[in-house]
Amino acid sequence: MALPSYASTGQRIWYYGFRTICALIFLFLIGPILIIIPLSFNAQDFFTFTPEMLRLDPAGYSLKHYEDFFTNPDWQRPLRNSFMIAPMATLLSVGFGTLAAIGLSQSHVPFRGAIMAILISPMIVPLIISAAGMFFFYSRIGLQGTYWGVVLAHAALGIPFVIITVTATLVGFDKSLTRAAANLGAGPVRTFFKVQMPLILPGVISGGLFAFITSFDEVVVVLFVGSAGQKTLPWQMFTGLREQISPTILAVATILVAISVLLLTTLELLRRRSERLRGMSPG
Amino acid sequence: MTSATDDATGPVLAADGTPLKRSLNRALRRQKLRALMLVAPLLLFILITFILPIGDMLFRSVENQIVSETLPRTVVALEDWDETTGELPDEAVFAAFHEDMVIAADQKLHTRLGSRLNYEVSGMSSLFRKTGRRVDRMDTDQPFRDQFIDVDKDWGDVETWSAIKLFSPEYTPGYFLNSVDRTLTPDGIEKRPEDQRIYVSLFWRTMVLSFTITFSCLLLGYPVAFLLSNLPLRSSNLLMILVLLPFWTSLLVRTSAWKVLLQDQGVINNTLVAIGILSDDGRLALINNATGTIIAMTHILLPFMILPLFSVMKTIPPSYVRAAKSLGATDWTAFWRVYFPQTVPGIGAGAILVFILAIGYYITPELVGGTSGIFISNRIAYHISSSLNWGLAAALGSTLLALVLVLYWLYDKIVGIDNVKLG
């Protein structure tokens, strides 16, 4: 989209104008996330830049909000809960999801469309409706307010992501490889672990990451299905934002942004690896 | 060769002697069964953890067993009573009611029934609570009718009894009628009083706000997607990170960022005051109203618009626009008549996706929406956790679900669910 040398003045104005508009939109996208990072080092309990911070005076900055996060049990307990719920939910979604994705990618599956629609539905139904339904049903069967109730609910929410990523990886999977393995005498289980699994692993891992982040970020369902004992990090942030907003939230937010950067990098590396394995050039 | 000629008339046989057709069918059946066996555990899992809960919600939106369970004898006795005569039920009904109420008050069930009936007729909750306190002390030898009227004169009102009769069936459309500001009365379906009509306007506001959000996402997303799809790969990959990072950042992080930015004493207002655009007492009210919801949700949903648009724009060959220009089209004509029509599928996909996501949002409107920027989901949450009117919450949820499923069906028609891509 480079500007040709024969462009008229109008075209030049439009070219630079358009780029300025796009730059502003990018600022809108990324600005709010970036602005909380310096604010989280505020030495005061304010949510805005103090004059000291604007002067870049070291006295205006401090780590006290981070200190509060790492020492205050009000934040540490939710953090622990989050790390107890999310991996378990991920394990369940990945286990069931991968198995089902392999089943769905076979050539003759009866009712494939209907099954797919059911498995994807937790992603389509608005969270508040899933939360309401789970709250009603789980209180009937005594799962409401328990650790396993939250884990099962989160696993259900993560499954569509596993199904989508793993089936996408299986589309590029060469079936003659499993036939070759069977031909050489490997049983179905051994073929799966030695041949199929290593090849679809990038898809499984990225599906797992999606499932993990879904559970780790989720607040609506846990708000209804969980009780005080299952209070997760997002839940604590939600209460903090709704009731008394404390600057520690910004420190937590910054840490979470760092985690998402890490996840994004991992996913990108996995995507490249998977494309290389499938014989496509990266990007 | 001889066997081949023999078989030419008969069926082709497989190695084990069975006809080939049957052998192949059997293999196919085994294959189908194996595929189903692999899918079955997950299907069962989703059924229990997700589909049944949704079904439970749909069931609760029409379920109404509380009246017939709490007052079983009264409901039977009331069947013979004709409310159109304008006369009170006879003594047998009052006797049955006394018997039911004694048991209910003993198990403290009468207050629950009172609050259930209060959703339909106001005043029922206090009536039942008051009666429950006094029902034990009633004289079983005297006529019950006068004693009940003595407790509260509402028991001498035909309307109280016709309301109980009206809501005695086990299933009721009452909650759904409530969710569209109607109410079931003995004379048929009526509109609620003016000051109690909130749901139709709330649904309407949810739609209008979601539409506004979708439109602003399109407005902001289109140029960005256009730029990304026309830049050289290296720079577009770099800029793509700016789109994907917000996409991957926790929803609460982004909402708290907006809460910090939009506040009265927040970064935006402070900056505008500092550079002299606003006076100190003329600060903009950007939060706790519809503006806050629109700004924050546009930001949150923008990547969902950019990604489908980008993937469509990427497939449009640049030669079409070049051809149009070489045939004499101006830049605008080439864009509007040649390029834009090819991006319509992307616009459709992105817009429906953003709209579906927006319409069911809860967290962001709750935190930055105040009272004028909340959605129907906030009302559902309120009825579940605060007012405890679960039936109404379920009815509102079912209506919202129906709406989303229609949109989803549209999305499937336009884009196809198999084409959903992540990241």
UniProtKB/TrEMBL annotation, chain A:
Membrane-spanning residues: 21-41, 83-102, 114-138, 150-173, 199-225, 245-270
Pfam families noted in UniProt: BPD_transp_1
Record domain ABC transmembrane type-1: where: 79-268
Places the protein is found: Cell inner membrane; Cell membrane
GO cellular component terms listed in the entry, alphabetical order: plasma membrane
Keywords recorded for this protein, A-Z: Cell inner membrane, Cell membrane, Membrane, Transmembrane, Transmembrane helix, Transport
CDD domains on file: TM_PBP2
Gene3D superfamilies xrefs: MetI-like
Main subcellular localisation: membrane
An example Gene Ontology biological process: transmembrane transport
Topology in the lipid bilayer: Multi-pass membrane protein
Membership in a protein family: Belongs to the binding-protein-dependent transport system permease family.
Protein name stated in the entry: ABC transporter permease subunit
Lineage: Bacteria, Pseudomonadati, Pseudomonadota, Alphaproteobacteria, Rhodobacterales
From TrEMBL, chain B:
Pfam families: BPD_transp_1 (PF00528)
Gene Ontology terms: cellular component: plasma membrane
Key words, A-Z: Cell membrane, Membrane, Transmembrane, Transmembrane helix, Transport
CDD domains linked: TM_PBP2
Coiled-coil features, chain-numbered ranges: none
Transmembrane segments: 35-54, 202-226, 238-257, 290-312, 344-363, 390-411
Family: Belongs to the binding-protein-dependent transport system permease family. CysTW subfamily.
PANTHER family: ABC TRANSPORTER PERMEASE PROTEIN (PTHR42929:SF5), INNER MEMBRANE ABC TRANSPORTER PERMEASE PROTEIN YDCU-RELATED-RELATED (PTHR42929)
Protein name listed in UniProt: ABC transporter permease subunit
Source species: Oceanomicrobium pacificus
